[in-house]
Amino acid sequence: MSRLSESVTRVMHILDGADLGADYTVAQLLDETTARRSLDLSDLSPQEQAALVEGRANHLIPSASVLAEKIEAARDAGRPFVVKYGIDPTSPDVHLGHAVPIIVASRFQRMGRHVVFIIGDVTAKIGDPSGRSSERPTLTDEYIARNLSGYQQQVTPFIDFERADLRFNGEWLNKVTLPELVGVLARVPVSMSLQREDFRTRLAEGHGLSVAEFVYSVVMAWDSVAIDADVELGGVDQLLNLQMCRKVMEISDQAPEVVITTPLIEGTDGTGAKMSKSKGNYVGLTASPDEVYGQLMSIPDHLTEPYLQLLTEWTDDEIRVVTKRLEEGTAHPMAIKRILAGEVVAALHGLDAAAAARAEFTARFSKRSFGDTQNLPAVSLKDHAEDTLGALISRTLDFAPSISAVRRVAQQNGLRLIRESDGGQQTTQLTEASVQQALSEVVSEVGTLDGVELYLKVGRKVARIDA
C-alpha cells in the first residue's frame, strides 16, 4: 500500500460517523491532510501518478497514458522530468486562483519531478491576451520589478524552492535574434491564432489587437524550448497558449510537452465569475490567517466542494464521503466549511495558525452578543455622519476593496445593521440602495439608539458604530 493510500485509509476512518463539527475531529483531519502537503509520493507508479494529476485537470493533452510513459522514460533514462509553470508579474499579489495549478506542481515535486517556476519578466511587457476584450496597458520595467519581488515568498507554502528552479524568461528571451524569431514564426500557421475566440471577437468589434499580442503565445513557447519541458501546467484559459508551446517545441525538434490545464476557481462571491483581484472576490496568499479563514467561511455553500477539490489534498473518495453525509443530514455545511477554511489557513500559515483562526472565528461569530467580542473596529457616527455607507465600508473600515464590492455584498443579503440591547438583537437587512446613503440616514432608519449598541455586519466582518 502506498503512503497516500495509508493516509486515505486513516482519514476515511475519521470521516466514518465522526462529528465533523467537533474541534477534536477537525484537528485530527487537519493533522493528517496537512501532512500530505509534504508527503513523499514517489512510491506511486507512473500510472498512479498520472491518474492523481488527471483527477484535477480540465485537459491532459495528449493523454494520461502518454504522461505515464514520459515519466517512465525519464526515470529509465536517469534524467530529470521537467515540470513547467509560468506566471507574468502583472500584479504584485498572487491569490488562491493562481494556486490551483501550483498545487498540482507541488504534487509533481513530491513525486520526485523537477519543477521550474518561470517568471515572465519579458512576456509581461507584451501582456497575455487570453480572454481580454482590449489591449493590456504596457508595463514599465520598474512596475514589473516591484510586482515580482514577492512572488517566490507567496508561493513558497506550495513549492519547495530548495528543490525547484525559479527562473526569469528574460534569461533567454533577451538573447533571441530577429532571424531566430522570424524562422519560428514562418513555420507557425496563422490559423492557430485565428481560431482563438477572444481574437476573433476583438477584431469583429473593432477593438485593437497588436502584432505583439498576436505572437505572445509563440514568445511564451520559447520558455518551454529553453528548459526542454516535459509537462506544462496552467489554467484552462491558457489552453491555446499551451498548445502553441507544443507546436514550437516540435518546430525546435523537441518532444512536445504534455499540457495540463486546471479549472478556473470561482470567486468567493459565488456569482460564477472567476476569482479575480479586479472583482474583489479573491483570497490573497499574503492575507492573515483570520482574513483567510473568515473569507472562506463567507463563501456560498455550493463552492465548498470545488474548493476542497482544487485547494486541498483531499482525494475524490474522501470528498464523496463528505458530500454523502451532507445529503444525508449527518454533517452540517458550516462544519465542512470550517474544515475547508482550516485546510487553506494551515497550508499558508501552519496548523497552529489554523487552530487560532478557528477559535477567533468561533468567538467572534458564535456569540449572541457582539459586545462580548474584543478588538472590534469602531467608527464614530458623529465623525462619519455624512460619509456614504459604501465609502465607510470600503475606505474607512477597509472591509471591501471597492464600493462596487460593497454593492455585491448587499445583493447577496450580506449587509446588515444589528441593534443590541438587554433584550437581545434586532437585525435590519440593508439593500443595495443603502450603499449610496449617508451613514446618519441609514442609522436613523433603524430607530432610536438609546440604550442600544449598534453594529455593522459586512459579510463575516463586524464593526461597532459609536453614537
Describe this structure in words.
- A six-stranded mixed sheet has the order 1-6-5-2-3-4, sandwiched between helices.
- The longest helix is centred in the C-terminal third of the chain and has 17 residues, at 333-349.
- Among the domains are: 40-262, Rossmann fold, CATH 3.40.50; 378-466, Structural Genomics Hypothetical 15.5 Kd Protein In mrcA-pckA Intergenic Region, Chain A.
- It has helices spanning 3-15, 23-35, 46-54, 64-77, 96-110, 123-126, 141-148, 151-155, 170-173, 178-185, 191-194, 197-204, 211-214, 216-227, 239-251, 289-297, 304-311, 316-328, 333-349, 351-365, 389-396, 403-411, 439-444; strands at residues 59-61, 82-87, 114-119, 165-168, 231-235, 258-262, 378-380, 415-421, 424-429, 453-458, 461-466.
- The protein contains 23 helices and eleven strands.
- The N and C termini lie far apart (65 Å).
CATH topology tier name of the domain at 40-262 = Rossmann fold
Mean pLDDT: 88
CATH architecture of the domain at 40-262: 3-Layer(aba) Sandwich
Q: What is the highest CATH level, the class of the domain at 40-262?
A: Alpha Beta
Helicity range of the residues? 40-55%
Strand content: 5-15%
Work out the helix count. 23
